[in-house]
Design a protein that fits this description.
Layout: H1 2-16, H2 21-59, E1 62-76, E2 82-97, E3 101-109, E4 119-120, E5 130-142, E6 145-151, E7 173-180, E8 184-194, E9 203-216, E10 219-230, E11 250-251, E12 262-263, E13 267-280, E14 283-294, E15 302-311, E16 319-328, E17 349-361, E18 364-375, E19 383-395
Antiparallel strand pairs: 1-2, 1-19, 2-3, 2-4, 3-5, 5-6, 6-7, 7-8, 8-9, 9-10, 10-13, 11-12, 13-14, 14-15, 15-16, 16-17, 17-18, 18-19
Length: about 400
C-alpha cells in the first residue's frame, strides 16, 4: 500500500512537471532507497512483534519460595516424649500464557505424605528428598470462571484455613472448576486417589461447594455449604501401613496380623461453614465455624471446629494470636487428607489449639503453636496429646 502511494505521487509529479533525464534518474534512485528503508522498517517491526510474543510468558513469570525451620516436642500419654527438628522448603514457578491460561510448577521437601512437606533433620546430614508439589494449568474461560487440571492448590474453601476437612499442605490431583464474582462463589472438583485401573477400580473424591460473601457494617460475612464424597467402604488404606486409617473405623480379616483391613464406611460429608472478618479497635478480628456430618455413617459421624484470630502479622513488629477448639468424631471426615497436627492426625479426638506469631519484617516471621488434645474420646480409653512447636519462616 505504501509502495502504491509513492508511485501514484511520483506519476502525478511527472505529469505536472516534465523532468530531465538526470532529474528523473536522481528521483528514481531516491525512491528505491526510500522503498528499501520502508521494507527494512517493516521487517524490523515484524521481528519485534515476534520477539515480544515469545518473551511474553517470561515477562509474566512469577517465582515464589519459602523455608521454615521448626522444633517440636510431642508428649502422648503412655508413650515416651518425642523431640525433633524439621525443615520445610517449597518453590513454585508460574506464568501467564495467551488466552487467559496459567501454568504452574512447584517442588517441595518431604516424603510422599500428601499432608506434610516437613523433612526431619538427621540421618547423619544426608540429603533430603524433593518432590513434585504442583504441576497444573488453569484457564480463565470467563472472568469469573477458572478450570484447573493437574496437581494444584486445593480449590475448596476452608474458613480461616482450618484443617477439619483438609490439611493446608494437601494439593489435590485431578480437575477443578471454580466460580467467583466477588460475592457468590462455587467450587467443584474431582480429586484422584488412584486413577490407574491396574490397581483396581479408579478411586476419587468428588465434591461441590457453594457460598456467599456479604458486606455488613465494618465487617464481611462469608457462609456456605458443601458435599464431599469419598467411596471408601470395603477399601484398604490409600497410603501408609495396612492399619493407617487415621482414626476412621475399619475391620480386618485377621486382627492379629492386620491383614485384609478395610474401611467400615463411605464418607458423604456435608459441610456448613461461616467466616466473619471485622475490627476490634485497631486490630483485625476473625471468627469462624466449620461443621461436618457424614451421612454414610450412623454413629460417631459429626465434627466441628471453631475459633478466632486477633491481629495480623504482615509488617515489622505486628503480631497475630489464634485460638481453635475442635471436636471430631471417629467417622465424621475422611481423615487421610485432614489436619495432620491436631491429636497426631487422627479422628475421635477433641481439644484446643493456640497459635501466636510475630513479623520480623514482611518476609520473616517467628511463631509458636500449642496443641492440648485428647484422642480416643468415644472409642477406647482417653489419651492425652500435647504438642508444642517453635518455628521461624521466611519467604520471597
Amino acid at each position: 500500500m505504501k509502495q502504491l502511494t509513492c508511485c501514484l505521487a511520483l506519476a502525478l509529479t511527472l505529469t505536472a512537471n516534465p523532468l530531465t533525464a538526470d532529474e528523473l534518474a536522481s528521483i528514481k534512485a531516491d525512491l528505491v532507497t526510500l522503498l528499501a528503508r520502508v521494507e527494512a522498517l517493516e521487517a524490523e517491526n515484524r521481528q519485534l512483534k515476534s520477539t515480544a510474543m515469545k518473551a511474553e510468558p517470561a515477562n509474566n513469570l512469577t517465582l515464589k519460595a519459602d523455608i521454615r525451620y521448626r522444633y517440636e516436642s510431642i508428649d502422648v500419654q503412655g508413650k515416651n516424649a518425642r523431640e525433633r527438628n524439621r525443615v520445610r522448603s517449597r518453590i513454585a514457578l508460574k506464568t501467564k500464557l495467551p488466552n487467559n491460561v496459567e501454568i504452574g510448577l512447584g517442588l517441595a521437601s518431604g516424603s510422599s505424605d500428601p499432608t506434610s512437606s516437613n523433612q526431619t533433620l538427621g540421618g547423619g546430614g544426608s540429603s533430603k528428598r524433593v518432590n513434585l508439589d504442583l504441576a497444573y494449568f488453569s484457564w480463565n474461560s470467563h472472568p469469573n470462571v477458572s478450570i484447573t487440571a493437574g496437581k494444584y492448590k486445593n480449590n475448596f474453601y476452608s474458613p480461616e484455613s482450618n484443617g477439619l476437612l483438609w490439611d493446608g499442605d494437601y494439593n489435590p490431583e485431578g480437575v477443578a472448576i471454580s466460580y467467583d464474582n466477588g460475592q457468590l462463589f462455587s467450587n467443584f472438583a474431582l480429586q484422584w486417589l488412584d486413577s490407574d485401573s491396574k490397581n483396581g477400580s479408579p478411586r476419587a473424591i468428588v465434591g461441590f461447594q457453594a457460598g456467599y460473601a456479604m458486606n455488613l457494617e465494618q465487617a464481611r460475612l462469608t457462609f456456605g455449604a458443601g458435599l464431599i464424597e469419598v467411596s471408601a467402604q470395603g477399601q484398604g488404606v490409600f497410603r501408609g501401613d495396612a492399619d493407617d486409617f487415621f482414626g476412621n473405623s475399619f475391620t480386618c480379616v485377621d486382627a492379629t496380623t492386620l491383614s485384609g483391613c478395610t474401611y467400615n464406611h463411605d464418607y458423604e460429608q456435608i459441610e456448613l461453614f461461616a467466616h466473619l472478618k471485622t475490627q476490634i479497635g485497631d486490630s483485625p478480628f476473625v471468627a469462624f465455624l466449620d461443621y461436618v456430618n457424614n451421612r454414610a455413617a450412623d454413629d460417631h459421624n459429626a465434627g466441628w471446629s471453631t475459633g478466632f484470630t486477633i491481629g495480623k502479622d504482615i509488617s515489622p513488629g505486628t503480631w497475630k494470636i489464634s485460638y481453635i477448639y475442635e471436636n471430631i468424631e471417629a467417622d465424621a471426615v475422611f481423615k487421610t487428607l485432614a489436619d495432620s497436627n491436631f491429636a497426631g492426625g487422627v479422628t475421635d479426638s477433641k481439644g484446643h489449639v493456640l497459635k501466636g506469631s510475630l513479623a520480623i519484617n514482611k518476609n520473616w516471621k517467628v511463631g509458636i503453636n500449642y496443641f492440648d488434645n485428647v484422642s480416643n474420646v468415644d472409642l477406647g480409653a482417653d489419651q492425652d496429646y500435647n504438642r508444642i512447636q517453635f518455628e521461624t519462616a521466611l519467604k520471597f
